[in-house]
Amino acid sequence: MRNDLNKKMVFLGGPRQVGKTTLAKNIIKNRGLYLNWDDELDRKKILARQWSDDDHYLVFDELHKFPRWKNWVKGVYDTQKENHKILVTGSARLDLYKKGGDSLLGRYHYYRLHPFSINEVPKSVHKKDVLKRLMKFGGFPEPFLSGSETENRRWRKERFDRILKDDIRELEAVKEINNISLLVDLLKSRVGSPIVVSNLAKDLQVASNTVKNWIDILEKMYLIFKVPVYTVKIARSLQKPFRIYFYDNADVDGDDGARFENLVATHLLKMLHYLEDTEGYRCELFYIRDKDGREVDFCVVIDGKVVELIEAKLNDSTISKPLIYFSEKLNPLKSTQVLYSEITRYKKNNLVLNGVEEEFSKLNRWK
Fold first, then answer.
1. Does any domain span residue 29?
2. pTM
3. Do residues 51 and 144 share a domain?
4. To which H or E segment does residue 311 belong?
5. What is the pLDDT of residues 248-261, one digit of tens each?
6. In Å, what is the CA distance from 264 to each residue of 278, 301, 347, 358?
7. What's the domain range around 264?
């Protein structure tokens, strides 16, 4: 990221309280200025451009809440890029907030910061506790490191309230906050299942387009992400239903199977975002389901090519028949059945059976 800052601006997006501010301050250390749009005094400094030539780095946090932020930061960059390295951070998808109209194309690199994963935890947490904590508390730093159920509940409630009442209401001008909260509750219990928008609309007594819009908003706020069905080369694939997963594993309202599938989904998304953000590959995550009922949890596509199929199981070491079927049909580089329980790694041809801790031990999985 420091290397990219020497060439362009860097935009750093990710969920609220995932650690963006900590990372930004670590990057600038004592060589820059951190300004947060949510702070009134900082907001005045931003608008007045009050910083010193000695501030090598300029960090603008939550700047996307400023209606004309893209034109503003473009002007700062175009006139001051020789003196300052600019990092913009925000708890929403900065690449989608195009307020102001003037394009920033070619002026920035975009990074996405994710919660802790199996391959990236502080040394203060014992290795044998990592997976259990991720399943129970999720990977966000504060609840994960505390390991306390009480602190976990309090943190989660406060964070969700801020996302609803501050971020969504301020950025999207949505008035039906209570209904969005109900939608989130419904989605929590449907992790890993195909989402039928019309059914959600009936439950909430609103139009289907309204539900679609709300889901898009939740995705822009890094609360959830969609995994669509893969249709290329599968003649009898289902066309429309997508699946929903949560960035915070502890948000899942389901059994251990649903939580484990969500954990696998978040790990795969993090790996794909890392590859996309740092090396420029086009990365996509799908699931597979055909009209004959055959289903595989995840299909990883990089630059249009299926590179891996992944099935998530708690402890079933019998290789999934649909995984075998689609592996033969799609011919990925690798097909993996990943288990929550520990198991001796098994490999036959391009089929792999392995425990999640060993299988997901590297962030750069497909290199």
1. yes
2. 0.94
3. no
4. strand 305-313
5. 999 999 899 999 99
6. 21, 16, 20, 13
7. 127-359
